[in-house]
Amino acid sequence: MENAIEVKDLSIKYKELKKMTIKQSLLHFRLNRTEEFEAVKGISFSVEKGRILGIIGKNGSGKSTLLRALAGIFSPDRGTIDLMGNTVSLMSIGTGFQNKLTGFENIILAGLLMGFTEEEIRKKAPEIIEFSELGNFIYKPVRTYSSGMYSKLAFSITALLETDIMLIDEVLSVGDIHFREKSGQKMREIIRDENRTVVIVSHSMGTLKELCNEILWLNDGVIMETGEPDEVIAHYEAYMKKL
Amino acid sequence: MKNFFLNIKKHYKYAVYQAKAELKAEIANSYLSWIWWILDPLFYMLIYTFVVVVVFGNNQPGFPVFVFIGLTAWDLFSRMITGSVKTVKNNIGIINKVYIPKYIFLLSKSFVFIFKFMISFALILILMLVFRVPFTLQMLNFPLIILSIYTVAFGMGTILLHFGVFVEDLANIIGIVMRFLFYFSGIFYDIAIRIPKPYNTILINFNPIAAIIHQFRKAFFYGVFPNYYILLIWFVMGIILTVIGVHLIHKYEDSYAKIA
User: Fold this and answer.
1) What's the number of CA atoms in the CB half-sphere (13 Å) around residue A167?
2) What is the pTM of this model?
């Protein structure tokens, strides 16, 4: 089976190049530069095409950082990420909507950013709007949305504009009970598609056991274990209890 | 630089759609809708003309045209510069979701500003008719003039976009610098006449916006040849600044999301 994701010796550092004032930047420019925090420390793994990888680990262990690196938002400080030319999208809480623009415009813009053409998005748009259950609100500015509507739209866009690789950060389902069921269903459908490679970050062990073929346990930026979901999750839970 | 053009080509549609949506959103809920795009610069011009003509007693014929040419060019320039500093902050939601070369945001904004510039420009033509400023063939130099303002502003914008991420109070500083520059760019007075020698030539030669406004007026207000060397020099300067800015952004943009 061919690989869809190959990660080799990946390191990602947060440079403590924090925001500064002019005064600070004049006085301490060099000094500030040196402090670094390594969130992901030289990890290597690969995911076969069509497989579902779950990533677990305690808070601050580098899970979201890794996901963002896979999405191309952060570039590696060391090592390589090869997606074998697959298209990729990241699904996470707090999407990049622009509040003053309408939901519809946001659908188009999000799609364009994900690399779809305007025609493709327009063709998919009715389906997205229907799935999001927003009705006429879709033509109103996003700032008028409730938080539920907001996340429903965000979910619908990423779920229906399908890419080869989907990275899912804690959002397996959103909205009220009804939508939660529907979105969970949709998610399973997407995830189980044989051609789609999925990486899920979640704290819900039950869901991960149910969905994933493989689990990667990340602890303080290094891989503790990879392997069968039941096994790794058991080890992880035992470890977390001891803390 | 090759990457720069490839990226622009790839994200051009996004930039255009974004600009259109933004313009639409601006007027979506206002009573006078698109009329504001005309009223806004018109009143701006009236206020400055009032100050200059009534308060300072300048009665040079066609003076409102003179002022409005300055304001139109200044607006494009200052909007680009002021807008660039907070680009990353304003788009952090998108930046955290997907990779996009950060100058695409600047490009998209610039389309909005150029649209407004064109409306102001149309107003210049109308004012010229009203105040009987003759139309001459020199007006064909218009594309060269806008090209040099745009390139300089875009170049500076890319550099400010980069530093705006790291330096928290850069926006405050730019605000002050722009206010200062506004009064030293000869927008409602003629630098060549009002400022004593040799400072007037220094200002005209070293302040890009003053230099370009001066050429703009030569072509439109005075109907004489603009100085092509000046326009070319600032165009080339703009290209150099863009190369530097784009290089900075390419090199550091992946860390923007980690900081902002």
Assistant:
1) 25
2) 0.86
